[in-house]
Specification:
Blueprint: E1 9-14, E2 37-43, E3 47-48, E4 54-55, E5 64-67, E6 73-77, E7 80-86, E8 90-94
Antiparallel strand pairs: 1-2, 1-7, 2-5, 3-4, 5-8, 6-7
């Protein structure tokens, strides 16, 4: 990928949601909610504090994360549907 996010932004690939319910019912694409889990595929260099010092991000490439339902901006880069969001939109790291 030839894209590098700036400052405290991260690029996230959504992880696919389940195709079936626990009871075995297949969910059509039109009824599925967008997943709120993703994998970070690129991170910015960090934000600057009031003194101008660079503060690195707490997340790194490869982390599996949870984020808010309406977080980020959807973009298409190299044919992939991705999200760009600020690190503050990330709720936590899974595992």
């Amino acid at each position: 990928m030839k894209f590098r996010p700036l400052h405290d932004r991260v690029v996230v690939r959504r992880l696919d949601s389940e195709e079936k319910t626990k009871g075995g019912i297949i969910i059509p694409d039109t009824a599925k909610e967008k997943p709120q889990e993703g994998e970070i595929i690129a991170v910015g260099s960090g934000a600057r504090d009031e003194a101008g010092k660079l503060v690195p991000l707490d997340v790194k490439k490869g982390d599996k994360i949870l984020f808010g339902k309406w977080s980020g901006t959807e973009v298409k880069i190299d044919g992939q549907d991705l999200l760009i969001m600020k690190e503050s939109d990330v709720m936590g790291v899974i595992g």
